[in-house]
Specification:
Number of helices: 12
Oligomer: single chain
Number of strands: 9
Shape: elongated
Distance between the termini: 63 Å
Structural class: alpha+beta
Strand content: 15-25%
Helix content: 40-55%
Length: 431
């Protein structure tokens, strides 16, 4: 059974009941179907729910908000699309409609204490598991990676605010790992009843920083991170006054305690085992993915061949009589070539950047370029390393037979990488 908190033993007013229902249904519409949508097989069923919500969302956007051109775009990595903002309105309208129906249809037949209790339990797991995901991803280099050559060669003023933030967070593994520990720690604390208030406190602190960064650096997960913060505040809300009395007024307080108690031991053991499997399985999966990523393309991966930034010294096109002619067209002439393992980019003299999937054959001495925009465009060039810092590419690239000479820069050649840490600084190194 659920031991009700002393404050909830009082008779609920009709207004309180309705607005409690409104909060409950909004949270349920927003949080569902997580984490069921992460389970193979089950995600197929939850997909029907997502399809239905998308259909309603389009109707609300076009007929109520008069957004005639509204459509759900393919996943771009942004959680702040027009479709996402309209979905907030949709969830609010659905929550109001559902609350009205439930309020008048059930009247006194609902145990509001129990309903609110289980909603908060679901909210704790929703925020907790997401914090564990983001925390462990940071800890295992899954969210922020160290600088690639395209970023290092980019003009500082050409970076976006989000790009600047990602560069800052990826620069220090220790700092990134620390923020990951804080997030994952808050998540784990939220999952256990005795530590949920401490977890909510830590979650509010951590997510306040995350939300502020997302707004200040224009990171397109403002809606999601804001909801994680708001839900954390809701979880903490019943104990805010007591925490204020304890920390500020120096009074002795006992936190509100509403706990699920099982009359049979086997039920309690089954719950504990199920909870352990969920937490360990979920966390273990994220850790396994993180470690695999570190060995595949992270700091533990083998050093990729030819990795570096190449500045163009000369760029020629072969003529009909096999003579070399310097290419002057800025749209065709390369300014820099960046190779970072299985991907790379070409910056032209016209400051246009084109990204490619690369396949390097160190035996045949070839580099295959496959355009991300048009995968039918595949070019294979032969390379030659004449000296540690000298590099030559030859062959048919798209429509032209080219030959290019480069000078190479490695990570250690950049001040941002080679400056390192110093206990003693006679002068600030703030260039």
């Amino acid at each position: 059974m659920v031991k009700t908190h002393p404050l909830t033993e009082k008779k609920w007013s009709a207004t309180r009941k309705f607005f409690t229902l409104l909060l409950i249904f909004y949270l349920l519409f927003y949080m569902f179907p997580f984490p069921l949508d992460q389970i193979p097989g089950v995600s197929i069923l939850t997909g029907f729910y997502g399809t239905a919500i998308d259909f309603i969302n389009l109707w609300v956007g076009k007929n109520i908000l008069q957004l005639d051109t509204l459509q759900k775009i393919q996943n771009t990595g942004s959680g702040d699309t027009t479709f996402d903002y309209v979905k907030l309105v949709t969830f609010i309208l659905l929550a109001i409609l559902t609350s009205v129906i439930v309020f008048f249809a059930t009247r006194k037949r609902i145990n509001y204490d129990r309903l609110y209790y289980w909603t908060i339990v679901y909210a704790r797991y929703y925020v907790g598991l997401y914090l564990i995901v983001y925390g462990l991803l940071k800890l295992f280099e899954g969210q922020f990676s160290f600088h690639d050559f395209g970023r290092l060669e980019e003009n500082f003023g050409d970076a976006t605010p989000m790009g600047l933030l990602w560069t800052f967070m990826g620069h220090s593994k220790i700092y990134g790992g620390f923020t990951g520990i804080m997030e994952a720690g808050a998540g784990f604390l939220l999952l256990f009843h005795n530590t949920k208030t401490l977890g909510a406190l830590l979650s509010v602190a951590v997510m306040s920083n995350v939300v502020l960064m997302n707004f200040c650096f224009d990171v397109p997960v403002k809606l999601f991170s804001s909801h994680l913060l708001i839900i954390s505040i809701i979880i903490l809300a019943p104990n805010v006054r007591k925490l204020y009395n304890f920390f500020v007024l120096n009074k002795t307080e006992t936190l509100n305690h509403c706990k699920l108690v099982f009359e049979n031991k086997w039920k309690a053991r089954t719950r504990a085992i199920g909870k352990g499997i969920l937490i360990l399985g979920f966390s273990g999966f994220i850790v396994a993915q993180g470690i695999e990523g570190m060995y595949s393309y992270g700091s533990l991966a083998p050093e990729a061949p030819l990795k570096g930034s190449y500045k163009t010294l000369a760029f020629y096109e072969k003529t009909a009589n096999d003579s070399l002619k310097e290419i002057q067209d800025k749209n065709s002439r390369w300014k820099n070539l960046h190779i970072s393992g299985t991907y790379g980019s070409i910056l032209t003299e016209a400051d246009s950047t084109i990204y490619y999937a690369l396949k390097i054959d160190t035996i045949k001495k070839t580099v295959q370029f496959k355009s991300y925009k048009d995968t039918t465009k595949v070019s294979v060039l032969h390379y030659e390393e004449k000296a540690p810092k000298a590099f030559v590419l030859k062959g048919k690239f798209e429509e032209k037979d080219i030959q290019a000479e480069f000078s190479k820069k490695s990570l250690e050649d950049y001040r941002l990488v080679n400056t390192g840490f110093h206990w003693i600084n006679e002068y600030p190194n703030n260039r």
